[in-house]
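## retry 2 of 3
previous attempt timed out at serialization; input unchanged, resubmitting
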Amino acid sequence: MTAAAPPPVIVLVRPQLGENIGKAARAMLNFGLTELRLVSPRDGWPNPDAGPASAGADVVLAGARVFETLAEAVADCTDIYATTVRKRGVTKAVLTPEAAAQKVHAQPGRSAYVFGPERSGLETDDVALAHAIVTVPINPAFGSLNLAQAVILLAYEWSKHVPGDGHVALASPPEVPLDPPAPHGELEELIGHFVRDLDQSGYFFPPERRDATLRALRTTLTKTGWSHNDIRMMHGIIVALGRAPRTR
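## retry succeeded, writing output
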């Protein structure tokens, strides 16, 4: 059995604000990534603004490593992906985040996702060092993602392919079982209840439209998968509507 590929490292090149580093760490940990590498952060490291912005992703910040150059930061990586909206004059394979995630999982070695400074993005020399470019399909009239948004997009796509064993278990939205549909006889009783009260209120007017209106009512009520409790609730609503208003 082939061993699962190690999770990719996230490399932030010359990040400018500690707050943005914290937000990127938060994005990483949401999807099970913990290894953060910083290349020449502008304000140094550690940065007091990173912790509050990480919203508790302390394990990521505590393990963050600082490097002088991008080459040093990815020296142990076999596959390097530069994230940029432009090729910046460098001819490289261009992948979507999903395609890059599939390649990361298929490679036995350590991969790196590389992100540039918030204001300017990766420089040409940074992109030249990578093996491929990752570009997010985005509105051509407004191609502006902040650092944490870019990180979370790639981390999410990677997480979709995480095997069940060997990695952090990622939570799925809870599945809430629905009540089974009620027998049709109960629905007929509800329809009858509607008709009796609507007749008393003079709803079916003009009289010659009564059959068509009843047909429309039945069609509407039989579209839903009414459960026993749904039908009981509707009976209660009809009864309540027929009562005199309560005084508060």
